[in-house]
Amino acid sequence: MAKENRLTAAQKRVYDWIMTYIERMNMSPTLAEISEGLGYRHISSMIVHINALVKKGFIKRHPNIARGIEVVRRKTTSIPVYGFVPAGVPFLSDENIVDNFELRKYISAPSNVFGLYVRGDSMRDAALYEGDLLFIDPTKEPQNGEIIVALVNGDPTVKRYYRDNGTITLKPENKKYTSIMVPAQSEQFTCVGTVIGLIRRIDKRRIDQILTV
Questions:
Q1: Using CA atoms, how far apart are residues 37 and 139, in angstroms rounded to an integer?
Q2: 79-82 and 69-71 beta bridge pairing
Q3: pTM for this entry
């Protein structure tokens, strides 16, 4: 979001109050209700913030209508973060969303990019550690040597991808584990997406809580 469109603390307080009111009452508040709800002694002081929200594109105000405030639905900047799930639960399903990340606040990303927390240590030697957050592009065709998320017999895995003579090899980056080899046209294999970036875990306690859900 451009700097000039960011909200001050006072503007955000007014905006959040309006959003809460609409969600609870299923209608827009009047200016008097906003002023009273936020404890403004003079309605003119609150209207300054309303006008700023209009100018920055967060709301519209229809004159001569008592409940004439309309919230502008802004494009989401967050991406879903999925977990590894037991067999039988679709990998990219709403019930498998364990977190959200505001990726598009910081970089441009395709509309269907999603996140995935790393589990285990099979990619340790590629510097992918448990709790790291991977960004996955499901539309990017994987090239040899790239890291992908795949489904093998319905189970998700993160491995390095190689294809040669009709055979796909999913190679771990840890000598404790062996490569997975499947025919390229096999129904046992599905490429979910290619890893295009990552964020190293910082808050280990929070990550541990998410991974144990």
A1: 47
A2: unpaired
A3: 0.60
Q: What is the CATH number of domain 3-71?
A: 1.10.10.10
pLDDT 10s digits, 139-198: 889 999 999 999 888 888 999 999 998 899 999 999 999 999 999 888 889 999 999 999
> Does the annotation mark 60 as catalytic?
no
CATH fold of 79-211 reads: Umud Fragment, subunit A (2.10.109)
* Residue range 52-96, pLDDT digits in tens: 999 988 999 988 888 999 988 666 677 888 877 555 556 777 777
List 45, 122, 179, 204, catalytic entry? 122
Domain residue spans of the chain: 3-71, 79-211
The Cα 138–Cα 141 span in angstroms is 8
Catalytic residue among 28, 35, 56, 159: 159
159 is catalytic: yes
Beta bridge partners of 157: 150
